[in-house]
Amino acid sequence: MVHPRIEDVTTRIIARSQTSRTAYLHRIRAAASTTPKRKGLGCANQAHGFAACGAGDKTALSSGDAPSLGIVSAYNDMLSAHQPYETYPGIIRDAARAAGGVAMMAGGVPAMCDGITQGEAGMDLSLFSRDVIALSTAIALSHQTFDAAVYLGVCDKIVPGLVIGALSFGHLPAVFIPAGPMTSGLPNDEKAKIRQLYAEGKASREELLAAEAAAYHGPGTCTFYGTANTNQMLMEIMGLHLPGAAFINPGTPLREALTRAATQRALALSALGNNYTPAGEMIDERSFVNAIAGLHATGGSTNHTLHLVAMAAAAGIILTWDDFSDLAEVVPLLTRIYPNGTADVNHFSAAGGTGFLIRALLEAGLLHGGARTVMGDLNAYTQEPVLIDDALAWRAATVVSADESVLRGCAHPFQPAGGLKLLSGNIGRAVMKTSAVRPERHVIEAPARVFHTQEDVQAAFRAGELNRDVVVVVRFQGPKANGMPELHKLMPPLGVLQDKGFAVALVTDGRLSGASGKVPAAIHVTPEAIDGGPIAQLRDGDIVRVDAVSGELIAQAELAGRDCVQADLSANHAGVGRELFAVMRKTVSRADAGASIFTQDDFS
What we know:
Layout: H1 4-16, H2 18-31, H3 43-50, H4 55-63, E1 68-73, H5 88-98, E2 102-108, H6 114-117, H7 126-141, E3 148-152, H8 158-168, E4 174-177, H9 188-199, H10 205-215, H11 227-237, H12 253-268, H13 279-282, H14 285-298, H15 304-313, H16 321-328, H17 345-351, H18 353-363, E5 372-373, E6 376-377, E7 383-388, E8 391-396, E9 420-425, E10 428-433, E11 443-451, H19 454-462, E12 470-474, H20 479-482, H21 491-499, E13 504-508, E14 521-526, E15 543-547, E16 552-555, H22 582-587
Parallel strand pairs: 1-2, 1-3, 3-4, 11-12, 12-13, 13-14
Antiparallel strand pairs: 5-6, 7-8, 9-10, 10-14, 11-15, 15-16
Helix pairs in contact: 5-12, 7-8, 8-15, 9-10, 9-21, 11-14, 14-16
C-alpha cells in the first residue's frame, strides 16, 4: 500500500500537469509508427542512411522489417566514467544482430568533467552543457530512421541531458546503459583530509596531487556519491536501466553481459514487436515521485532539485520544490555513502545496493511499485544480476544489509527524514543538503560576509578575515549571472573554519551538488542576485539565519528598502567559450524551474 503522502504528492502533480502532459502525450503518439520509420522516407534519404553499412545490415534496413537501434553516446577519454564506452558500439551492434536487428551510432553528445573544471572558467558552462546535450540528442535522432534508442552516459549533466532528449523523442523506447564505477581507491574521507590540510598550508601540492590520483585512479565513475552516481541510482529507480546495472564495475564479464541484454531489451520494446514501450508513456508522474523518494533515501545530489524539474518538464510534467520538500518529510535516509559517510558506492553495492534499497522503500509504501519500467514494473528492480555458466540471470537481492553502517531498511534509518531541506524566507528560496551535516550544525546564525566571486572568498580566508562565526554569502553565481557554477573550492577553507570551532554557513545562488559536505550550505538561492533577488540586498554584518530545522533562510534586517547591489560580470562572459553561451544566460529559467533554456510549452 502506497504511503498517503506519496499518493497525495503524486495526485497533485498529475492535476497540476494535466494540460501539459496531455499535450505531450498527444504529440508523441502522433509520432509513433507500427512500421519502420525509415520506410516513410524517400529512397535517397534511406540510401544515405545505410550507405556505410555492411551487406547484412544494409539488406535488413533496405528490404526487411528488422528494428533499427540508434546509439547516442557521451564517450570521451577525458571522463573516466565515459572512457569504457569506447568499445560499447561494437558490443551493441553484435548484440543487435544476434537479436535480428541493426544498431548504428546515431550521434555523440558533449561530456565535460566537473572534476576537471572545478574552480576554473569552464565550470561556467557546466550547467548549460545539460541543455546542449539534450539538443545534441535531438540532432542525433532527427534522421527518423530508428525504432528504439540506447543512451550511453553516466556523469553530472550528461544523464539529465540525455533524458530530456530521449523524452523529446518519447515515441521511441529508451534504455540507458551505464559503464559502472571505478574500483575503490584511496578512501574518500582520507582524500578530504588531504584537501583540508592543503587549504591550511599543511600539505604540499605534490601530496595533494598524489592523494587525488590515488582516489581517481582508473576507468569508471568516481566512487563518491555525487551527481554521477545519483544519476545511476535514479536511472534504476525510474526503470530506465536493467535491474542492478548501475554499479557493476567496468571491464567485467557481467558488465558486458548487461550491455548486450540492454541492447536486446531496447529492440524488444519497439513498436515492431508485441511489447511496445515508448519512453514518454513509460515515464510518468509516478516515475518522478519514485525518483525524488530515491534521492531523499540516499542523500543524493542537490543538483537534482534542478535536473528532475527540467527532466519532468520534457515529459509534460510539472514538479516544484514543494514536492521535494513534502516527500522529504516521510522518506527516511537509508544510506551512508561519502560525503554522507565514509563508504563509497562499491561498499554500498556490496551491502545490498539498489535491489535492497528499492525493496525496502517498496515495503514501506514509499515507491509506486506499479510504475512502468523497461522490465515491466518496479518490482523487477528488487533483483540483482549474476552470471550463471556465463549466462546473465537475476536473483532476488538480499533482504538483510551486509553492512548497516552503509545501508539500512526503513525500520532503522540513519535519520527519519530525507537528506534535503527546502529553505525559504526574506532572502529567497534555497535547498540544503542535510544528510552530511551534523545535527548540531543544522541551525547557524551569524553575521554575513558578502562576496561576488569565490576567488575573493579564498583571498579573505588566506588573509585571516574569516576567523569568526560567519555566514559567507557568495552571490552573482546564478544561471543568468554566469551559468551557476559549482563552488566546491570553497568547501576546504570553510571546513577549516568550522573545525576551528566557528559557526559557519554558506549562502549562494550558485551550486554545490552531490559532493556537498559537512558545512551547512543554502544553495540555488532564487531569485538570484542578477534578477534583483533579496540576496542582492544583503550587506556585510547583516545577521543571517540558516535553519534546516524550521526551513528558514532569514536576514534580521529590513531588506525591502535597500537598493540591489550591481556587479560587473563581463569577466565571466568571455573566454573558454563563454561568449558562445550568451543566449543561454539571457533565456535560462530560475533555479526552481530547472535552470533550463527550455519551457514547458516547448514540449507540449
